[in-house]
Amino acid sequence: MIRHGQSEGNLHKIVQGHANFPLSNLGKKQALLVGEAFANVNLDALYSSDLDRAIKTAEAIKEHHPHLTLNTWPVLREVGLGPLEGQPREDVLKIYPFLKHKSILTSGIPGTEQLHEITNRCKITVDYLLSHHKNDTVAIVAHGGFISILIMYLIAKEHWPNVERPFMIGNTGVTKVTIDRQGVLKVHYVNDTSHLEDKTNTPFHDTVEK
After folding, report:
1. What digits encode the pLDDT tens for the residues 19-47?
2. Which positions make up the binding site?
3. Does the keyword Transmembrane apply (predicted)?
4. 104 Cβ contact list (under 8 Å, min separation 6)
5. What is the pLDDT of residue 181?
C-alpha cells in the first residue's frame, strides 16, 4: 500500500477527504521516487483511488510496469469529510476544537463518512483482493487516512475503531502486508519512506493526512 505524493491540499493544510486536489511540485517528485523504488518489484496488479493525487502517483509506478493495467477504484478514496472538505485545517479546528484531541477521520460530524461506512469499504477492499488476487502481489495507491484504517481493519476487523493508531503514513509512505493461504496476516513494515531520504529535503509526515 502506497500513500500518494504531497498534494496541493497537504501543502496548504487544507482538509481534503474526497476533494480532488492535484499533486504539488514536491509531490510529483516524490511520486517519481516511489515509482523508481518499485521498478524492480514484481507486481501482478496495480490499483489506485480514483482521485487525481493517487492516480498520478500510481502512474509513476506504472511507468516501470507498462504491462500492468492501472485500475482506478473509488472504494480506495480517502475518508469522506463532507462539509469540512476544502476548508483550511486551522478554520476547522476553530469551529470544532474537540478535533485537537480526536481524529478528524472518526469525528462523527454530520455529513462526514461514518464508522460503519468506512468499515464497509475496508471489507469490500479486503474481500475483493483476496478473492481476485489470492496469490498475487498487488500495489494499492491510496490515502493516509484510509490506509491507516485499512491496516487497523486487517488487524482487528470491525473492532478497528477501538484500536489506538500508533503510526502515521507520510507522503508516498509504503506499507507491506501479506496474507498467506491460511489467512494469516503479517505486517512487514509501515510507512517506509526510505526512497525519499536525502532527495526531497522535506519532512516525511504531514500534519494533515487527508
Report:
1. 999 999 999 999 999 999 999 999 999 99
2. 3-10, 53
3. no
4. 15, 81, 84, 92, 210
5. 85
